[in-house]
Amino acid sequence: MNEPHPTTIPPEQVTLAIEGWNASDLQNREVFQRSLGSLTGQTYPVDKCQLLIVLDASVPEQEAAWILDHLPNARFLRVPAATYFRSKNRALEAAKTEFLVFADSDVEYSGQWLENLLACFSDGHDLVGGNTQYEHGPLGRTLSLCDWAATRLNSGYSEWFYGNNLAMRSSLLKRLRFREDLGISGGGAVNVLREQLRATGVMAWFCVEARGLHHLAPFLQKRLRVGGYQIHFRRSASETSWSWLARAPLLAPFLVTAGTAIRSYQRAWRLRSTLPGKGASLPFYLLTITAVKAVEWIGSALVAWMPGYVSRRYGWFDVPHDPNQASQPA
Questions:
Q1: Are residues 289 and 145 in the same domain?
Q2: CB within 8 A of 66, min separation 6: which ones?
């Protein structure tokens, strides 16, 4: 199903929760404004949806007021001690409509993104993940092959989805919760939800036409952190695939990075027709994937062999104490 038919879901039944949870996202107004502009430019009437802007409670009101210039009907959902997944959970608790859609402040969405995402529910799906890739830029296509495991040529069922491009029915809202013990940021650890979904018989539908372009973060810091998360969330969440790879202290960086590299190579082969030269450039992309994985290996080794140093130096996996069990829209 590569061309979803127009959705019949009225906007009054849709909550759009936009992650802008930390102050650094708000300070990078150019990126956030680009995302908001893509949302206000949707073919679907976004302004008639329930709109939640998810912010850390510590962000001063004057820093966030400009967001209402783009979405005047939005409400701020202020989350104490916000982390990426804690913010998602608070949006789950706050949504009162039949459908909930997650968007992020660092993703630019195609004009028919929301319409395509919601159209998939007419075929009986309960959870729909969209097609996120990196924006054009240095190594952008290579990093998409490395990170976006759901990227494929056609729509279909998938075990992989991402919190920046995701929609679900209300039947899941009370049954589904993201892990909140995996650090301030999230990374691919969103897929620890797979075991919860399997237990309830739910499988995500991947919609190739629900496209989003993710902002390219500074390369070195991002790839080191990605490598570190590959170790961290597998150690913290034993239900994740290949979690046993992260438990061998000496071998963990080699095993985990090799496993993710193999998946990236497989993805490049599967998507080779989309690469420049209709596949002739595949050897070049395999080499660049190897270079990216070499940097990630360093991040994996730091976390596997020097976790105390990484925690003190970067705080990647800090989980601030939540003084409240729930948060309501302001």
A1: no
A2: 29
In a domain, 5, yes or no: no
Parent domain of 272: 220-313
pLDDT score recorded for residue 190? 60
Are 110 and 224 part of one and the same domain? no
Query: What is the rounded distance in angstroms from the CA atom of residue 20 to the CA atom of residue 22?
Result: 6
Query: Which tokens in the block code for residue 104?
Result: 């992020």
The region that residue 124 occupies, defined by phi over 0 for left and psi between -120 and 50 for alpha, beta otherwise, is: left
Task: Identify which of 33, 38, 43, 34 has the alpha carbon closest to the alpha carbon of residue 11.
Answer: 43
Residue 4 lies in a domain: no
CB 256 within 8 A of CB 234: yes
pLDDT digits (tens, 9 = 90+) for 21-38: 776 767 788 999 999 999
From the list 128, 91, 118, the residue with the least C-alpha distance to 14 is: 118
- Specify the number of domains making up the chain: 2
Whether 154 contacts 209, CB under 8 Å: no
Residue-wise pLDDT tens digits, 282-313 = 999 999 999 999 999 999 999 999 988 888 88
- Residue 138 CA to residue 75 CA, distance in Å, equals 36
**232 with 212, same domain?**
no
Task: Tell me if 98 is assigned to some domain.
Answer: yes
Decide: 259 and 245 in contact? Cβ < 8 Å: yes
CB crowding 142-154: b at 16 or more within 10 Å, else e: bbbbbbbbbbbee
pTM confidence score: 0.92
The residue type found at 283 is P
Q: Is 253 found in the same domain as 208?
A: no
Predicted local confidence at residue 33, as pLDDT: 95
| pLDDT digit string, tens, across residues 101-149 | 999 999 999 999 999 999 999 888 999 999 999 999 989 999 999 999 8
- 201 with 230, same domain: the answer is no
Residue 90: CATH number of its domain = 3.90.550.10
194 lies in the same domain as 130: yes
Tokens found for residue 13 = 């039944």
> Looking at the domain assignment, is residue 207 inside a domain?
yes
